[in-house]
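Render ArsR/SmtB family transcription factor in 3D.
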Amino acid sequence: MQPDLDKVFKALADPTRRYLLDQLREDNGQTLGELCRRLEMTRQSATQHLSVLEAANLVSSVRRGREKLHYLNPVPLHEMQERWVDRFEQPRLRVLSAVKRRAEEAMKPSFVYVTYIESTPEKVWHALTDRELTGQYWGHYNESDWKVGSRWAHVRTDGSGVADVEGEVIEAVPPKRLVTTWFDPNGPKDQEPSRATFEIEQHEGIVRLTVTHEDLPDEKAHQDVSGGWSAVLSNLKSLLETGHVLPQAPWEMP
């Protein structure tokens, strides 16, 4: 089927739909439930995004019993490449692609988590930066004046005053974007800090919160933050939507 490139461009314009395509690129043939798992998106919202991708012929679906499996279809992307890239830039871009691939392979691992919250950007920003609120859903107080260049600390709520994480505020644009560095004050002296970016976007009555944790030192750190962020942000979502945190600390689950 000849791809409708207008629909392709429309489909690719949304970061959530690009993220869905990335998920299928990594693991093709996923169910709706599997695609929703990391996004914390309702099935209805995910279905709407998948409908746009299917209309652009970027995703195809196949029934297997009661399940509906979704597959990435690269044909429209190939058509775009043939039409605008291959005839003019292919040799040069092949070299650049190889350089980019080698650079990415040498980069430290990073983690991205997206959640959707029934709230406002102002309330989400407040929840991320208010000392008492972070103590409720995170188990640590986040302490800072949140000005660019200021120190921030992730302090235990047990009264010991011990900070398990410290860092610097790199960027603060309330209520849209917060960037901080992270390092273990009790760790090796020569450690390089990682970086966490919080992006807050509003769409009508909901907020999309994207957390990107970059420059992690190794795969073990990636595994640790993967579980940690999922638990903390689920607790944050519950607090903002219901007024209370989850009935037990989610990071304590085996």
